[in-house]
Specification:
Number of helices: 9
Shape: globular
Number of strands: 3
Low-confidence stretches: 165-203
Strand content: under 5%
């Protein structure tokens, strides 16, 4: 969920996957930082697959659809600790797979920018040839998807300035939004991309 939708840890453990999806978007309200609710479009098979797994987990764990991803009987603090422990045991550390939960959130930001034709400096972007209005729109959309209000905060996830890669051809905003989704970035780019391929590929 951090890779596919850029969620924070708290948003993950408090998510009710059966109740949080409507009209093709994942609605984040519970656990949102500062109470800043947001809606993240579900555009890719990877995102849909992750949500399907989350729903299956909730059904098996709680036997009902309205529950959260956290095991029953845990406080929020305990649920967050458990989440971090499970990630570590699964190898999602810098020393293990080279990717952390927050790194997957960074990756989501980079891939969302790429869907606009903008490549983050941490992924080898070069000075952008896109109109400033397009770059600004990309920063604003990515910031909102991450649950922030300031577009410039994206630099904390994607480097000092998201830039366009050589030879990239700008697309219309509507197409970019339809192609946006999970991703990779920062030092964990290759690992996050690998996990997306695993979920996307038929077994």
């Amino acid at each position: 969920l951090q890779c596919a939708f850029g969620l924070r840890r708290k948003e993950v453990v408090m998510l009710q996957p059966w109740l949080s999806v409507s009209a093709g978007v994942l609605r984040i309200e519970r656990g949102a930082k500062g109470g800043r609710a947001r809606a993240i479009p579900i555009h890719t098979p990877f995102q849909a697959g992750v949500l399907a797994l989350a729903r299956e987990w909730v059904t098996r764990l709680h036997g009902r659809r309205g529950a959260t991803l956290a095991p029953a009987g845990l406080s929020l603090r305990q649920a967050l600790s458990r989440y971090s422990y499970v990630l570590g045991k699964a190898g999602f550390t810098r020393e293990g797979l080279g990717v952390t939960g927050h790194g997957m959130r960074n990756g989501f930001a980079c891939r969302l920018l790429e869907a606009w034709g903008v490549v983050a400096s941490v992924r080898g972007g070069v000075p952008s040839e896109l109109p400033p209005a397009v770059t600004d729109a990309a920063l604003r959309a990515t910031s909102e998807a991450l649950g922030h209000s300031r577009p410039r905060i994206v630099s904390a996830y994607a480097g000092s300035m998201p830039l366009r890669s050589p030879g990239a051809s700008p697309q219309t905003p509507s197409v970019r939004r339809q192609r946006s989704g999970a991703g990779s970035g920062s030092s964990s780019s290759s690992c996050s991309a690998s996990w997306e391929r695993r979920f996307s590929s038929p077994s």
